[in-house]
Amino acid sequence: MKISTIIIGIILFAIATMIIYSWGLIKQKNQTGDLMNLLFSKGESRVRKYLKSHDDITSADVEKLCDHLEAKLPFSANRAVVKDKKNYAKQLLAYMVKTGQLEQEGNRYKKVKK
């Protein structure tokens, strides 16, 4: 085996290791945001499911729906859990109103009619 083949193999191995390590660092840096996005997505789906069988929803209803809600990314030990239900419900409803999924009528929220 030639020495140039060995050197090229070592360089390619080092490049592959560098790429995988960098990808892991980026995933770790973005993990908190990804967990929060997943947590809000799960909350949104629960609210939409609730609104299929009900006309409107209140902040207290969202608090009950999202009690013990948690999000976990695959291949990760870290997870996000709803601890402050009132704050989470307020943020979730504000987000859903902002994105046009719900409309506010007093202290109740209804689905936007299309």
Distance between the termini: 70 Å
> By helix and strand content, what is the structural category?
alpha+beta
Helical stretch tally? 4
Outline the low-pLDDT stretches: none
Number of strands: 5
Strand residues, percent: 5-15%
Q: Into which percent range does the helicity of residues fall?
A: 55-70%
Give the overall silhouette.
elongated
Mean pLDDT across all amino acids = 90
The run of helices and strands is HHEHEEHEE
- For the CA atoms, what is the radius of gyration? 23 Å
What order do the strands of the largest sheet run in, or round the barrel if closed? 1-5-4
Summarize the main sheet: 3 strands, antiparallel
Per-chain topology:
Blueprint: H1 3-29, H2 31-53, E1 56-58, H3 59-65, E2 70-72, E3 79-81, H4 85-98, E4 102-105, E5 108-111
Antiparallel strand pairs: 1-5, 2-3, 4-5
Helix pairs in contact: 3-4
